[in-house]
Amino acid sequence: MIEKFINKIMQGDCLELFKNIPDNSVDMTFADPPFNLKKNYTSYSDSLDFQEYLNWCEKWIYEMVRVTKPAGSIFLHNIPKWLTYYTACLNKIANFKHWISWDAPTSPMGKSLQPAHYGILFYTKEAGSSKIYELRYPHKRDRKQGFLLKDYGGKKDLLHPFGPLISDVWTDIHRIKHNKKRDPHPCQLPIHLMDRLILMTTDENDIVLDPFSGTGTTAISAKRLGRKYIGFELDKKYVEISKEKIEDTESNYKIGKSWVSFYLKDIITIRNNDWNDIKKYFIIPEPLRAVDYKKVKIKDSKLIPNKKRISCL
Ligand SMILES: C[S@@+](CC[C@H](N)C(=O)[O-])C[C@H]1O[C@@H](n2cnc3c(N)ncnc32)[C@H](O)[C@@H]1O
């Protein structure tokens, strides 16, 4: 039954469409629902009564967990306020792993602290047997001089040449701010944010499902990383935009045999255990302590997918 939905963006209400997806059939589910902040969507009114919004969320959260395989993962992106309610519901039916804090300015709200992060809840369906890979991102550097931002003192010889392991605070991925870089959609996510979640919890050919697909960010990330996708989206126009972009996307985010995430001309996420296979494609500073002022570089620029192919950023 699920075959009919593989590599498709289905137009309709996610609660109806979920009925077609069998229990325990998807490797990873990710939801970026409307935040109930009166955003200007084409076919959805983003302003429900408080309890009505939460009741609705509980229904699709339950569906996400139901369709996820026992070793699979569930991610929910939202503002912290709503995530506190989501955890109360999820803690009863899934296994909490992390609250990822994505450092990105949000709308100014209220007169207390300025909101400066979105949360991404990371749950696995079951404790113990889950598929999770450690990731690395490039060292953070001073933009003008290129020196490492963090002072590792006399320990620079021990640094990983590519960069540190990824923590639960993400400061290196920016929201799409400029209108010319985004589709006509009020809150599109950066694709390399999705790359990171997909690389962390799935393998090639695994199935990724997004019930609020918007303009197809999750599907594009899944496709370029050699995964399968299923997207649900209420709005016809967003579905059309997604289909065009997906058509233009190739499964080519790879170095050698390893899937990686590119951002512009750099690699922004790798799996820790792929480094031994891919390090031959990089110029690594010598001696290693020179990493302090020199980045690892890809040896051959032909290894980088060309601009057209990474145009959906
Ligand atoms: C926050 S946006 C998702 C944006 C998406 N992550 C992206 O990067 O393009 C939420 C989306 O959910 C859609 N939506 C709202 N209610 C829905 C429903 N009941 N079923 C399916 N999609 C729905 C909206 O049209 C909107 O595109």
Automatic annotation (TrEMBL):
Entry keywords, A to Z: Methyltransferase, Transferase
UniProt cross-references to InterPro entries, sorted A to Z: DNA_methylase_N4/N6 (IPR002941), RM_Methyltransferase (IPR001091), SAM-dependent_MTases_sf (IPR029063)
Residue span(s) of domain DNA methylase N-4/N-6: 26-244
GO molecular function, one term: N-methyltransferase activity
Protein's name in the database: Methyltransferase
Pfam families according to UniProt: N6_N4_Mtase
EC number: 2.1.1.-
Domain of life: Bacteria
CDD domains in the record: AdoMet_MTases (cd02440)
GO CC terms of this entry: cytoplasm
The keyword Methyltransferase is assigned to this record: yes
Keyword NAD: no
One GO term of the biological process aspect: methylation
Family to which the UniProt record says this protein belongs: Belongs to the N(4)/N(6)-methyltransferase family.
